[in-house]
Amino acid sequence: MIPRPLLLLLVVALLTACSAPEAPVDDPVPAPKTTAAPDFAPFAADLADDWGYQTLGDLCTTVGHRLTASPGMARAVAWAESTFLATGFDSTWAEPVTAPRWTRGREWARCTAPVPFDLTISGLGLSDGTGPAGIEADVIVVRDFDELETRADEVPGKIVLYNVEWNGYGGTVHYRRDGASRAAAYGAVATLVRSIAPKSLATPHTGMMKYADDVPRIPACAVTVENARRLQRLSDTGHTPRVHLFMEAENHGDGVCHNVMGEIRGATRPREIILLGGHLDAWDVGDGAHDDGAGCVMAMAAARRLIRDGERPARTVRVVLFTGEELGGYGGRAYLEAHRGELDRYVAAMESDSGCFTPNGFSVRGDSLVVAHVASLAAPLAPLGAANVRPGWAGVDIGPMVEEGIPGIGHRVKGDYFHYHHSPADTFDKVDPELMARNIAALAHLLDALAHEPVPLRDRMADDAVAGSP
Asked: What is the pTM of this model?
């Protein structure tokens, strides 16, 4: 038997040992290897400049919604022209673009059976409305187009809900784009589409849809991920959900909007043009901060950096803020047609339309020689995280030009873009000023290299390269 006082001392000692830090050992485990902190010194002036962040805040706050061919888009055009001139660009102008004019109006939806609850919706761009009485019908829930086809005999007179799991944007977006016409072909009266997003906080994500010519046009809207899953659970447990949908959405035919240009004339090779842009139009929800206000402002800021210290690029830099991207890329096609006669002057086309998150380099549309050369120009951007260069898509707006043989460069980031994309949550407060400064620095340094290198990027393309080939 251990005497009680001694036993108490042993217990205290054990408790103390358990709570104290571990004692050092003779052969400690080596510390994990650490990577040296990035050297931001070459970019210090760029990272200290908050012009881009402040300018984006002005766009989002004083202009706001910028739907194609809307009064908001007209305000954005005026804002862009005045900002270009105030920033020191040599010239600015706007060019008309014919594009669809669509309005959302009021909208709501409610599950009326077997248990009543409101749905949070966002009508899809270019969808027709329901009419003043709305549409009330039973809901058939499907997980993909294959299930829709398998259950085609259940569809007539129903509202079809596509509860499609996120499979990347490219793997999911066709349900938003084509879902209404695919369901209408089997007799559906409306469609609900689970928001195209990897995660949700009860926020619907809108976006463009398209009607096929050979089937009836039925209303289409996005519902939140949470709503879609609840309706799925009701269906899976033997209930038949019933929904009343009301949408005032209306297509008004063609409208006129504008691409806006700001140009810095080259000092020694002014005939050669480097285009850098984003799309100024944005959905009528949120304020288009990441999609694509940030891209537009970062393009403006990158070009501004080339003249910030009183210097001037060798080649002409033209910043283009496109319109009509969200409703089908109208601005990019219109720009190509308006400037087809000068295509031989373009050295490269760059686009920023991935939001403003952590820099992740560039994707290049061109042959292997072009990709390799852009990689060499981007190598010094490693401290910013922007030295990753790969073949790939360059952007919707510059796509028509790239298909004509002009090298295309897409600005790439990594972050939660699709959490905010096309939703009311795409607002200025979601933009990190430090990351914006890093992205502007990356764009500016690559733009500067392209503007001054002796051999134009386009001339590095192999003679037998296919236009637009990766």
From this structure: 0.90
